[in-house]
Known about the structure:
The structure is a single chain. By secondary structure, the chain is an alpha+beta fold. It has a single domain (3-124), classed as CATH 3.30.1330.40. Helix content is 24%, strand content 29%. The protein has a 6-stranded mixed sheet, covered by helices on one side. Helix 2 (85-95) links the parallel strand 4 (72-79) and strand 5. Helix 1 (47-65) packs parallel to helix 2 (85-95). The model has no long low-confidence stretch (mean pLDDT 97).
Amino acid sequence: MKRIIQTPKAPAAIGPYSQAVEIDRTLYISGQIPLDPQTMKVVEGGIQEQTEQVLTNIGAILHEAGYDFTDVVKSTCLLSDMGNFKAMNEVYGRFYSENPPARAAFAVKVLPLGVLIEIETIAAK
Length: 125
């Protein structure tokens, strides 16, 4: 049976989707962009600040569902510019310092609200 995950500690969905869905001890987190959950505005700064906010939002959703970063098995990072990959990776590495998940990273033409990064995540128990 699927369970919908919702927390006010991460940005509310800005479309017809759930923050996350859990089924069979697997958590699927929708792509998160760097919105401050209190203001629903894009955080100020560049790729590092935006990556930090995205991963903080993911952490809040993981926590709400009873998971943590050690349970993450796959991330997909969507970047507005692959020139930001190295700086994004520095921040990303702080959240996954041991046994990092599988990952893909792509450059895309445009992201919602003109942000620099979006990350979707899968975690499993």
